[in-house]
Amino acid sequence: MKRGRIACIAVVIALAAAVTRAQWKPIAPGIDYQESRLDGPTMVYVARADRAKKNWLIDTCIGQGTLKSGRETVSQLAARADGSVNFRGERYDVKVAVNGDYFSFKTGQSASGQITSGWFAKRFLDYSGGSGFVWRSDRRAFLGGNVRNGKQRQRVVFADSADMRISNLNTARGPGELVLYTPHYADTTGTGRDGVEVLVRVSRPVGVTPKADPVRGKIVEVRKQAGSTPLPFDHVVLSGNGRASHTLLEHAKVGQELRIELGVKDYGSEVVPPGDWRQAYASLGGHFYCVTAGKVPADRWERKGKPGAVDRHPRTAVAMNDHYVYLVVVDGRSDKSIGMTITELGRFCLEHLSATEAIAQDGGGSSTMWVEGKVMNVPSDRGKERPVANGYILAIVHGPEKSTSFSAGQGFRTRGDTELRLGPGTNYAVAGRVSAGQAGLIVAHRLNGIRAKKANWWKCRLNDLAGWMPEKKLAALQAGGR
């Protein structure tokens, strides 16, 4: 064994022995928070969620709400998610948030893939050697391995049994491609008039959906050479040009059902077994597996001397064992906290948290720990939060809460100038603006009256505009339309 490696191990052991541990502080039922000071000095901030409790979940966020919008701080990510509802109408009470995957400063998009609230928002890198932490709807969790998730495993099947391979997911449409757009791409598809777009209302989030359990949808509209299509809540758009547009026109008929299959094949890696991505609810790309099967696989980076791993930096990680899921942030690059190598991060997760699995996320100036409205650590960008592309949240989940003030088919007039949203909540983009006194109808929807973002929301139609409006902006019409 090399002398340098022996010294590194000795430092790690010394750090582990010199932990000053604060008590775990309960911040919500099942969720606790703790800060630790190690010799170095190094400050570590940890939130944990008790896996025996069913009142919370872990999810991912996207900067400014869509992949094309850009970045925002972890505080802003948490605020955007807080009070929002998922596909089932469950409302998030966000307690903890941290930054997520590496990203491009130029495009503001994450380096790898993302699953958010059960939706497959961005494909993971193929042939990359690994993917990231995966949280499933059944509350199972694992570290993803080397995955394949391209068009060979993803397709749409029409009512006449014809099928098309999905060329890309939530990216700009290329010549001859069929692209699937979800509401996480942007407010609209942003396409030109040289193709065909099929608007589909889906029965559940379009997530990882193998052939045996596809997502079913109903075709609402087929738009030929009409340009960019809005992307409303609980809908997707199939967009094609060239040969793909001709195939869409031949097989996609309004009112018919179709099936969407977005398969992911996980081949595992040197240190993690293949994972089962069915029911994947939340996932982001990760980079260094710092703990696997209760061990720190340090040789994977130490023998190669990777600068991003063997130098001390601020760090963010997701860790877990059978009892808890942990979000971990380490301060660095200052005289108050020098940061950690990946080996030290793994040792902390293993020895202090008893984690059996852990994966490092983006670090450096991105590393941020937010707890109940406050940034707890000191980000290395002179103490200021860096806008990031994505992040993880821990949220208490409240069951659907609905108003019964209106019913489907009921008429109303708008109270003052207002806006229609693409979904139930102010976290969704504006679908259109209407002036005071305009008449409209309540449209039938399973989430009508849902409580989100401190208001109750209704699906409405006003002439050729459709979208969601808060109840306080609706005045019921009396018999006779008055």
What does this structure look like?
With 482 residues, the chain is mostly beta strands. The protein folds into three domains: 3-146 and 270-398, no CATH class; 151-262, no CATH class; 411-476, SH3 type barrels. 11% of the residues lie in helices and 37% in strands. Strands 1, 2, 3, 4, 22, 23, 24 and 25 form an eight-stranded antiparallel β-sheet that branches. The protein has an eight-stranded mixed β-sheet with strand order 13-12-19-17-16-18-15-14. Mean pLDDT is 94; it is low at 1-17.
Distance between the termini: 86 Å
Give the helix/strand class. mainly beta
Nearest-angstrom radius of gyration? 24 Å
Q: How many structural domains does the protein architecture include?
A: 3
Question: Helicity, in percent?
Answer: 10-25%
Query: What share of residues are in beta strands?
Result: 35-45%
Number of strands: 36
Largest sheet: 8 strands, antiparallel
In terms of per-residue confidence, which ranges show pLDDT below 50 for 5 or more consecutive residues? 1-17
**Mean of residue pLDDT?**
94
**Global geometry:** globular
Counted by DSSP, the helix tally is: 6
